[in-house]
Design a protein that fits this description.
Blueprint lengths: L1 H13 L3 H6 L5 H52 L3 E6 L4 E8 L4 E4 L6 E2 L5 E2 L38 E6 L5 E2 L9 E6 L3 E7 L5 E7 L8 E2 L1
Antiparallel strand pairs: 1-2, 1-6, 2-3, 2-4, 5-8, 6-7, 8-9, 9-10, 10-11
Length: about 220
């Protein structure tokens, strides 16, 4: 027995880092609960802020893309010496540039990058805001409905339901369906927290605006 005990002791002494085996221990249950609680508190603070920032980025991106599309239609009209328009579909939550084809006597959609879609949680509208941005429209409203077009008349035909159109003539001037200069174009998008607007003056100046969803009309801010 003595020889066996001596052999066992020598075997233990020969193990590397004996002190590590003797002293190492794991975390206690209390320590783990404290760490988990701190992580949950941090997540509870960070996640809502992250969601809010992402919503802001989405609606800002949509407003920026709409402004860019309107500018593209203005250049297409001048470059192709014809009328061009941006067609907004309120139901499908899309928009795209269309040009009047004089040979086919119809509006033809751009084939590249169209249509574009509003992000999740964003729709065409202006919530409970009651007044337009300063120096723009007389009454707060979306651009008029698009027309189907008729023979030799891009502004002819009937209204297309649940749409809005911003139209430019071949000189890049915003015009109504009859071809007369128009000073009341605007497109608004909202996400329940804010409203972003894009307005077009009769000179072709495109401006961007923002307002909190429940703010007074005087609180529009130029972007």
């Amino acid at each position: 027995m003595l020889a066996h005990s001596t052999y066992s002791e020598k075997l233990v002494d020969a193990l590397p880092n004996r002190s590590v085996f003797l002293c190492t221990r794991g975390f206690s249950l209390v320590e783990l609960l404290i760490v988990i609680s701190l992580a949950l508190v941090i997540a509870g603070i960070a996640v809502p802020n992250f969601v809010s920032v992402m919503r802001t980025f989405r609606i800002q991106g949509n407003a920026r893309d709409i402004r860019a599309e309107i500018l593209l239609a203005k250049m297409r009209a001048a470059g192709n010496f014809t009328r061009a328009r941006v067609r907004f579909d309120h139901s499908a939550r899309t928009w795209s540039t269309e040009a009047w084809n004089k040979t086919l006597n119809q509006w033809v959609r751009e084939t590249v990058g169209a249509p574009q879609y509003l992000s999740t949680g964003i729709s065409f509208g202006f919530g409970t805001v009651s007044g337009p941005p300063p120096g723009t429209q007389i009454v707060l409203e979306q651009a008029p409905p698009c027309k189907t077009g008729a023979a030799n008349n891009p502004g002819g035909g009937s209204d297309i339901a649940n749409t809005s159109c911003v139209i430019f003539n071949s000189r890049g001037i915003p015009v109504d369906s009859s071809g007369a200069p128009y000073n009341d174009y605007a497109i608004y998008v909202a996400d329940g927290r804010a409203v972003y607007g894009t307005t077009i003056s009769v000179t072709g100046l495109i401006r961007s605006w923002r307002i909190e969803a429940n703010s007074a009309s005087a609180n529009w801010q130029r972007r």
